[in-house]
Amino acid sequence: MAFTSAALQTIFASPALASRTRTTSYSFPRIASVPRLSRNAVRCMASGDEKTEQSSEPTVVPPTTSQIPTTPTPPKPQAPKASTKFGDVLAFSGPAPERINGRLAMVGFVAALAVELSRGQGVFTQISEGGSTWFVATSVLFTLASLIPLFKGVTVESKSKGLMTSDAEMWNGRFAMLGLVALAFTEYVKGAPFV
C-alpha cells in the first residue's frame, strides 16, 4: 500500500506529466525510501510525518472451515405411505384398476397378434376356440401378482427407475387397450383376420 502510494506521488509530481496535461501541478515531497509498515499500520501522507497509527477498524481474520458453524440439513420429507385398505387399492381412482387392466391388455394384444400371425385366426375365433380359458387364467395370475405388492404398501412409483418407469407402463397399457379394441373392431368390420 505504501509502495503504491509513493509510486503514484512520484508519477504525479514529475514535470513531464504536468506539461502534457496542462493542469496545475502540485508538488509533493519526494520520498527516497519508503519505510516498511506493518499490516495494521496506516501512514498519514497528507502531513508528511512518518508516524504510524494503528487502524481504528478491527482486523478481520477469515474463519477456517472448522470454525464455520454448519447448519444441519433438514430431514427429507417422507412420502405418505400408500393405503393398504381393499377399498382404497381397488377404488376407481386407486392404484390397481388401470394398472391391472393395462398389464392384461399388453399381454392380450401381443398374444392376439402372435396367434393371428402363427395360425391365421382372428381375435373372435381365438376366444371361441379355447382362448377364454387362457384369458381367465392370465387375468387371475396378473391380478394377484399386481395386488400383492399393493396390499403390502409397496407403490409402483417407488420401484420405477431409468427407462422402465411407472408412467411408461401406464401409457403402454393405455395404448395396448386401444390397440386391442382397434384390432377387434377392424376384424369385426372386415370379417376376416387383420393379418
TrEMBL record:
<keyword id="KW-1133">Transmembrane helix</keyword>
<keyword id="KW-0472">Membrane</keyword>
<feature type="compositionally biased region" description="Low complexity">
    <location>
        <begin position="58"/>
        <end position="70"/>
    </location>
</feature>
<protein>
    <submittedName>
        <fullName>Uncharacterized protein</fullName>
    </submittedName>
</protein>
<feature type="region of interest" description="Disordered">
    <location>
        <begin position="45"/>
        <end position="83"/>
    </location>
</feature>
<dbReference type="GO" id="GO:0016020">
    <property type="term" value="C:membrane"/>
</dbReference>
<dbReference type="GO" id="GO:0009507">
    <property type="term" value="C:chloroplast"/>
</dbReference>
<keyword id="KW-0812">Transmembrane</keyword>
